[in-house]
Amino acid sequence: MKSIRDVYRVGKGPSSSHTMGPERAARRFLAQHPHAEQFRVVLYGSLSKTGRGHGTDRVLYEVLGSERTEIVFSEETPADLQHPNTLDFFAFVGGAEIGKMRVQSIGGGDIVVNNEVAGDLDDTYPENSFAEIKQFCTWRYISLSEYVELNEGVEIWDFLANIWNVMKQSIQDGLATDGILPGGLNVERKAKHLYEQERRDEIPQIREARMVCAYAYAVAEQNADNGIVVTAPTCGSAGVLPAVLMYMQKRYDYPDKKMLEALAVAGIIGSLVKRNASISGAECGCQAEIGTATSMAAAALGSLKDYSIDEMEYAAEIAMEHQLGLTCDPICGLVQIPCIERNAVAAKRALDAFNLAYFLCGTRNISFDMVVRTMKETGININGKYRETSEGGLAKLYNRRRVE
After folding, report:
1. DSSP character string of 324-375
2. What are the chain's domains?
3. For residue range 367-395, what is the model confidence (pLDDT) as tens digits?
């Protein structure tokens, strides 16, 4: 299994698969062909259908140069297409092709170039399932966060400290900003309004919901506005984990050391899903993004409260199980409706899963590994219209209403 560093990537929104991945690919192709006079990029599948709303064309023009780059939003599906987020790069000099590259943007900013995963090819963890990890930790009498340090080295804590700082900054920036998000839907930022709506008769449960949702909205709105966020595991689901962690730290005054341990545990959950299923909305629907983020957050909450490994697994399993079948149908291809609100709802669901696991852990029948496998099989069977194409669900009905 790969390092948890692959789960947490700092970058600009609104989409890790449609913005960060293509940008990374374009920089690689430019480095290979620095003397090219012209570029042509052909987008397929979900990249073609929602690339404009997700800013794919914007980042490609920024990297390659708008004056010398042609972007084609292809309506055709090549017979050899292996992933719905695929793009072909071509470089030319004097009208003659001098290079080409096929890239799959597989989620979380990761890319596969010519069928070879870009970046670190070596596994950091010898274990590839939660069952294997739990067995190892039980045998060694170590916690999940200690397991992370054992495999990643002590330097992982400096990395996670930076990740936590960026997450907190995203929340602060989101809470300080109001106005209308770009894209044409006229979606109003709501995080600041939620945060400031405290009332004298507000009961604790209502305040918890309001604050958690305000934090989730803050990050999701920053992402929608092309701001800096941390993939956890994607840009579209970036608000869930920081929302619950920020709330818990402010309420219970946890030291940053506990927050970093929680991020380590969440990273293991996200890495397992990337290894054994998918975090790509175009491949498995929003269950792969928001579902994974909810599992990561639920397990992280368990870490803060010193849950046993069994209890943390149960929290993550509950969180994922009740997101199964969640579709990805962004209106106009923008990461705004239903994406922003969905981050807030998922953050609350993570808290519910975390609490339920505490009371019922000894009664469970489903393992985290089983629910991850189920998510993958469910995602593969979801109709393509509901996998980040904006051709079904809310996206379809909203467009029809606008036409009528």
Report:
1. TT--B--GGG-S-TTHHHHHHHHHHHHHHHHHHHHHHGGG----HHHHHHHH
2. 11-117 (3.30.1330.90), 130-403 (no CATH)
3. 999 999 999 999 999 999 999 999 999 99
